[in-house]
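Retro notes
What went well: the complex prediction finally ran end to end.
Inputs used:
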Amino acid sequence: MGVARYIKDEKDAIKETIYQSGISVKPVYGPEDLEAVGFDYQKDLGMPGGFPFTRSLHPQGYRSRAWTTRQYTGFGTPEETNQRFKWMISHGQTGLNVAFDLPTQMGLDSDDPRAEGEVGRVGMAVDSLRDFEIAFQDIPFDRIGSGLTINANATVLLAMYQVVAEKFGYAKDKISATPQNDILKEMIGRGAWIFPVEPAVRLVGDCIEYSVKELPRCNPVSVCGYHIRESGATPAQEIACAFEIAKTYIENVMARGIKPEAFVGRFSFNLNVFGNLWEQTAKFRAARKLWAKMLKEEYGVHDKKKLFLRGLFGGGGSGLTKDQPENNIIRGAYYALAAALGGAQTTALCSFDEAYTIPTSRAALLSLRTLEILMEEVGLRDTVDPLAGSYFVETLTKQMEEKILEEMKQIQKMGGMLRAVATGAIQREVTRQAYEFEKGIQNKEIIKVGVNKYIEGDHPEVERHEYNEAGAQKQIASLKLLRKKRDQQQVSLMLKKLEQTAKRKQNVMPVLVDCCKVYATVGEMTGVFRGVFGQWKEPGIF
Amino acid sequence: MVKKKIRILIAKPDLDGHDRGAKVVAIALRDAGMEVVYSGLHQSIDQIVKTALEESVDVIGLSIMTGAHLSICQRLLKQLKSEEMEDIQLIAGGVIPKDDIAKMKTMGVHGVFPGGTPFDEIVEFLQSLF
């Protein structure tokens, strides 16, 4: 029943409830439970906007500002994506969250043989600055921030974003971009990695170091517990992995002689809403508190605003089902509720048709409307952290905190995050959880409505967004034209400079900016890194 | 009669990195007593066929999430044919719409198992092949 284990008696009464993170839930909670977990009002809760921020980052929560909505968008050519961006903004969306196709994510140009069949399929195809000029045409960079779902070559796309913004007349200290830039989670789940661990993490650090100095409004990393949870991790493991990954990046940047106080305030997180409502809500509250405590106690960060766990709580893809797809609309609404009760600062929802393909415009709009209804109609802006003080929720938040710390210790036992990824220990654990979960669904220990209970038999499938092959051809043709028109000598010169910089292990960002300006392609720039850094070899986990 | 121990290569073709399904099925088949080889991510069709040959597997199982299942299966079948490895059975899983299942079977894919297919169904199907 739901994303938890429920042990029932012969009369269908629940005898025991165990959440995915391993917490047993009691039928009734009272003050004695708070006492048992050592709950301390000042230490554990405090006022919204005050340390440790369990309740909210801001004193007035959603009263002062509703969450930012940022549906994951991008497909086909930059022209098509630009239209969808504008359409979503015209319907009230307050930020962008850019989806790139797999060739772009893997640093291959659209005419690379390895890109065949994938150009513009799961996101927008980007080969050069020319494509960004089209995709971001008429987007108000000073008002609309952009999440860029790019990791292995986040440096390349962030540089391109800066160049396009400047070209459109926006100063670089005014623009807000959030490149995902979390390569370790790609190595644990999602899989869009290219380079070996060491240079890959150095590139993450390059992005952070450069942003701190040059792009003060950018959030140079979005640490993604999200995809690790999608890959099978429990909610406690999701946060534990995210924090251990974040610590790895912090240490990389500290090794460059920069104090945490100067950059951790720009860290952002991407966390998942899929799962049991209470467990998710408690997870967000516990995570906000733990992050602030960790930065203060372990890294000596004092400035209050730099202790904020900011980020996007959303998605929920692994909770959506192919069977009875309309049920996903309802699931999405409850997942969004968990995000709101958890105090999400930014949000986005997977659309109901995403178990099939990327969303149609109608499905994407429904997700946006779901988020708008919560803020505008249902009352989620009324008061800050409405669940605060609940015997159950506060006990659970304390217990989640303990579980997250336990899971962090497990990763430390694996030799720390870098080693856990390199040896495959963490991937093995996440896969084991995924297998157990799938078995749970198949033997009906975990209930999914329409999948293993209340089945309707043959069900209609959804209207599908179709892949546009002609668009891919158009993209390839315009890339070929670009290669003819640009100053080839300049491009070669810049790429040579990039190679030297990469070899010397210097920050690659300034040279990437120059490369983008002369229309070097994503494939060429990433190709230089491939030549210098080589490719990662996945550890065997079976 | 002692049943033959089935050897299967679970492979992730091309650029997609969503490997949860592939890995979970790999464990399930191993738990069902099969010998499972996992290709790892970002494998070209050539690499998959080469691994299948080197590991002398009986079956290749492709996991495809991007919507490119028709073209990927077509390319793999063509390569198997040109390498004279048509005795290898091909199955596929992932995000595969109902309408495409018949097309894939006509093409020569022996079994198609969209996400959510019970492990037992895949195991029984594979056992019925040998």
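What we learned: Chain A touches chain B at residues 102-103, 105-106, 108, 114-118, 121-122, 186, 189-193, 230-232, 321-323, 355-357, 431-432, 434-435, 438-439, 441-442, 451, 461, 464, 467, 538, 540-542 (CB under 8 Å).
What to try next: split runs per interface for comparison.
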